[in-house]
Write a structure and sequence with these properties.
about 90 residues, mainly alpha, two-stranded antiparallel ribbon, about 50% helix, globular, membrane
C-alpha cells in the first residue's frame, strides 16, 4: 500500500521546484509568447520582472487576495481545485 501525501493546509497552491504555480505563470507565459514572436529572451525577462513584482504584491497582502479581487470583479473560479467550497464540513481525500 502506497502512502498518500496529505498537504499541510487544504488551500496550499501546487509548487514547481521552489516556486508556487502562481509565481511561475508569468515566466512561462512570457516564454510561450516569446517563442511565438521569436523574442524568447526579451519576453522571458519581462515575465521574470512581472513575477518579481507579483511576489512583492503577494507578500504585502493576505493569502488569496488576488483570487478574491478577481472574484469581486466577476472572474469566478468556482470549479477550480485551488478554491475549495467554504461550506463543506469534511475534506475527504
Amino acid at each position: 500500500m502506497k502512502e498518500t501525501r496529505i498537504p499541510t493546509r487544504a488551500d496550499m497552491p501546487p509548487y514547481l521546484l521552489v516556486w508556487s504555480s502562481d509565481e511561475c505563470m508569468p515566466v512561462l507565459l512570457g516564454l510561450g509568447i516569446g517563442i511565438m514572436l521569436n523574442q524568447v529572451f526579451i519576453c522571458t525577462t519581462v515575465g521574470l520582472v512581472v513575477a518579481h513584482f507579483y511576489r512583492k504584491f503577494r507578500d504585502l497582502h493576505p493569502d488569496g487576495y488576488l483570487f478574491h479581487l478577481l472574484y469581486w470583479y466577476g472572474f469566478g473560479f468556482t470549479r477550480s481545485k485551488s478554491m475549495i467550497n467554504p461550506w463543506i464540513k469534511r475534506l475527504i481525500p
